[in-house]
Amino acid sequence: MTQVIERQLPEVIQGGMGVGVSSWQLARSVSQAGGLGVVSGTALDLVLARRLQDGDEGGHMRRALAAFPDPAMAQRVLDRYFEPGGRERDRPYRPVPKLTLRQTAEQQELAVVGNFAEVWLAKAGHSGAVGVNYLEKVQMATPAAAFGAILAGVDAVLMGAGVPREIPRLLTDLAAGRVGGVGVDVHGAEHPHRVAVDPAALLADALPALPALRRPRFLAIVSANVLAAYLARDEATRPDGFVVEGPRAGGHNAPPRGKVVVDERDEPIYGPRDEVDLEKLATLGLPFWLAGSQGTPQRLAEARAAGAAGVQVGTVFALADDSGLTPDVRVELRERVAAGTIEVRTDLLASPTGFPFKVAQLPGTLSQPDVYDARQRLCDLSYLRTPYQTADGDIGYRCPGEPAHMFARKGGDVAETVGRACLCNALTADVGLGQTRRDGYDEPALVTLGSDLSGVRELVAAHPHGWSGADVVRWLTGQRASDDEVMSSRAT
Ligand SMILES: Cc1cc2nc3c(=O)[nH]c(=O)nc-3n(C[C@H](O)[C@H](O)[C@H](O)COP(=O)(O)O)c2cc1C
């Protein structure tokens, strides 16, 4: 088993960074250079709808939609969202359906088509491997999203931020064209709830005409031996490998084990109990990649020496020219890293998920108290909201990032709202898809990076005018660009 995976999945995995930072362009560039290019699978329904409303510059979304196996479904999405020439900058984007337990066909179609498009574009025109990354916490999104990615032939699915015990089965079912679903945690519920997608009902006539779908590999992102051992124990929950993510990684982190102790800057203190025992992990017999402060050639070599199949790297890829970050954010971050004028904090409050979240302290973003205080709280995208059972047995939804009085009215604890940022709106702003409100207010950004910026400094020195995802793979692995790769990157 180990050998098969190691042969198929490369030693460098580019992290799936949401929303849209791990764009199809970045994943494609990485995978053409021999790495596992990974697109972020978070909120791809919204990403597609907004790109179409912005006029779909370059026609890439429409190119992908033209390849979708059910042309009528792709056309419905285009009819709803495409605006030739793009919307006027000061007109708000139209809403997309919010995640719910009971899902409409319109809602699932946008998610299926959005995931298909991003993976299809990342895979187009080469034979490299492409993965998609989801968050376990965003449970209601997963079945439809995974089905769209499978339709596009995704090679691997990666998932962290929770216990992804149902994903192996979900991928097997969906690839076989069967109904596939996952359980959804509903606070206070008396009976279990599920969200499912039915490929036959969604695609109807198009499904039998499709070539057999391939089940992607599944890599579980874990931060502790016990979770890895738990998942590996049973065939039904066993992944095809692990990404072992440490507390210095960008994005969300697992909280420290035991009672959380903070330092003088209110950042959580991690200790030896938070380290994963790699020798013990290796006894599970599954390949693993190390993540979090692993993004240099030396770290890759050390990881291999420690028995890892390779590394998963985020920060240096996020700052590559082909990532989804807006050029001004990317360039400012690179300059600040080089000048040593950026700090990355592990913020215990910012994320509505309750997980610690790395925040780059960048002027003009929600990391700054004045920008944070000036934002009127509002939850209109709602990817991180969670369902709860109401007193009359109905289902409600709440997010600690919403206005405190509304959260309290829904039975939430007001203390949980303190310091929360609206990651949904902020992360879409990072990639140029942020909302403009009717009163002209532009949703501000909030940028996450890993704690270790040494790789970025090395790359800034070697590539002062910027680098591509492929440059990062070559730098990490010590290879030179092949002629094919240079030709194909010029052709796009
Ligand atoms: C900008 C950014 C966004 C990220 N977003 C996600 C995400 O949405 N889901 C996820 O599982 N990991 C996310 N991560 C974590 C990366 O996939 C990767 O594991 C991590 O960055 C590796 O550590 P490094 O930044 O030290 O290289 C993100 C990281 C960064 C830098």
Would you mind describing this structure in some detail?
There is one protein chain. This protein is α/β, with parallel strands linked by helices. The chain is built from 21 helices and 14 strands. The protein has helices spanning 2-8, 24-32, 44-53, 60-66, 71-81, 105-123, 142-151, 167-175, 199-203, 206-209, 225-233, 278-282, 297-305, 315-318, 327-339, 369-374, 404-409, 423-430, 454-462, 469-477, 483-490, and strands at 12-14, 37-40, 130-135, 156-160, 180-184, 193-197, 217-222, 241-245, 288-291, 310-313, 344-347, 357-360, 386-389, 395-398. The strands form four sheets. It has an eight-stranded parallel sheet. Helix 2 runs parallel beside helix 20 (469-477), helix 3 packs across helix 5 and helix 4 (60-66) packs across helix 6 (105-123). The radius of gyration is 21 Å and the shape is globular. Residues 1-7 and 486-492 have low confidence and may be disordered. It binds flavin mononucleotide. Flavin mononucleotide binds at residues 15-18, 21, 40, 42, 133, 135, 160, 221, 245, 248-251, 291-293, 295, 312-315, 318, 448-450, 452.
